[in-house]
Batch of 2 targets.
Target 1
Amino acid sequence: MGLADDLRKPPSRPNSCWAARLRSELVGEELEAFEEAVKLVVANKGDNYRPSKGGATQAWLARVLTDNGHPIGYRGVSTHFKGQCACGII
Ligand SMILES: [Zn+2]
């Protein structure tokens, strides 16, 4: 174990971003609502953590998902919406 071992084990799932994982887990109405929420966040240009900003922010999305059993940190949400995650599909 340790750094050398970890460096020799790249992740086996390249598309293991939280959004890709959710899209593979959610079904039906929940999946539809998730996709709608993603569009709202993009349309809202909610790319910064601004709790005072109303509407669909990334912070809002992270909180709603976490409160409903899908714990996701704001940083992970932000990485996805900046296109810096592995999934590449916003
Ligand atoms: Zn992603």
Target 2
Amino acid sequence: MFANNKIRLLVTSECNINCWYCHNEGMPYEVEYMSRNLIDYIENFLGNYRCMVARIVYSGGEALLHDNILDYIAKLRKFTESASLVTNGILVTEDLIKQLKSVGLSKMRLGIDSFRRKRSRPTHGSCEHVNPTEIINICRDNGIIIELNIVLTEYNIGELDEIIDYCFDNSINAKYFRVIREIIDDDGDFVGYEHKDHNYVDKFINSINRYVGAKINRDYDGANTVVLNNGTILRYCELLCSKELCWKSGTRISPNGEIYTCMQARRNPNNIRKIKYDYDIDYESFNIIKKGRCAVAV
Ligand code: SF4
């Protein structure tokens, strides 16, 4: 019923920093928070249809800004084998990690671009430094898997070897992203995404080639470069959302109850289904996008 048996809940469109490359998962720019009514609806839906999904991911915006995030993770935990949280780490504390563990979080995906600069991400405005090593160690001490999201830009490209070394030395899986930009037409309407610059795939591969025995594969018609080294997986996402190839995306539910499979699809009204405002069980809303393809015409 769900795209690739995964659900991605975008619990808020708000963030506590303002990265210049942010696509905000394709959500509208108005600040919205996922309501308790909507989570109750999703919980009832999963229960009534006896659903068990491989993964539920909580993301945003910054998911930890949501006051009810612990409660939401706890409510849906019984419907999934794995509960993951995507965060920029700014609000993460040891106490919070323990609380996240207690409600069943399995994995934290930490978005951090620089290990050594004062700001962990390149932002318009201020951004606190996040200590990735500390967060990684606390997660591991508490039995939470930790992985990294790193956007490669001129901000951190000088650190690339260092970050790759860190991932391999500490057996941390990571995704490296190329920046994508929105294409807006003359009328101000969104038409799609483009990748014009910031392509560091050659530098990425050169850096990997320092490791004898690392295996490099190009997946999805070159959209992804995947590296396997002693069990650690690094992925360079070169053509995110431009080739309709990220078919492993899950069913996304945005804070206002819209259901879609990926950012590209999100921008085409024909590809979105909306959970009914009366929160009746609405099987077709989910079933209709079960193919899990990007931009699937339904
Ligand atoms: S941390 Fe993530 S959601 Fe927040 S501004 Fe940066 S890219 Fe966007």
